[in-house]
Amino acid sequence: MQRIRASRWALLGAALLTHAALAADPPPPSRASHAASSPTPAGSDLPPVVAREPSLAECQHAAARLAAGDASDDASRAIRARAAHWAPAVRGQLGGSASDRTRDGTMNQNPVHWTDLGGATTWSVMLSWDLPQAIYSRDESQLALATVHLARTRQAAAVRAAELYAERRRRIAALSQLAVAAGSVQLEAVLGLLETTAALDALTGGLFRESLARVQSRADALTQSLTQEPTP
Prior knowledge:
Helix 4 packs antiparallel against helix 7, helix 7 (140-176) runs antiparallel to helix 8 (183-204) and helix 8 (183-204) packs antiparallel against helix 9. The N and C termini lie far apart (104 Å). The protein has helices spanning 2-24, 31-37, 48-51, 56-68, 72-84, 131-135, 140-176, 183-204, 209-228, and strands at 89-107, 110-128. The chain has a domain at 48-88 and 135-228. It has nine helices and two strands, in the order H-H-H-H-H-E-E-H-H-H-H. By secondary structure, the chain is an alpha+beta fold.
């Protein structure tokens, strides 16, 4: 009888310990809380209009291509310049001659008048190669210097595009903080953004044409509202 009571008390204690352990463990997080605690992807905190604009890499590539063409054209240009010296120089010549002679004489004691007509046509084709030029062309050095110059031009355009891109983002961030500022202060900030956007659009060959139109519309609206305000 005592053994039965002891076993009952042991079962009751085990049940109480299990209940306490389950109460101490936190419930598994739901999908909604997990989605809310997940890190925000990069770029999602940007305004929707700015997030749809070209990236920095796209701006740099467009600026470099507009400034000095594609870099792949440099290698193709060098290959074609070397292969061109294996093409022969072709020269052709065409000539003709004609003769018309008359002779008077006798044959079998009879007077005879001879007329000799003749003609000839000659032509020739000559192919020539300059083997020293095929081994090393005299314009390879100039071509190499031109390639280096184009690469530096592309690099300068890419650096300038990065500067304008960063400057434009800073102006957008500063303009977002002037929502309650005076109209003249907002207009000055919008005009600065308009200038930077126009320079970046020209450097990239029109990648920011839509953004430029939006900033232009905002600048026009602010200018019109300021000119219509009554002067004190």
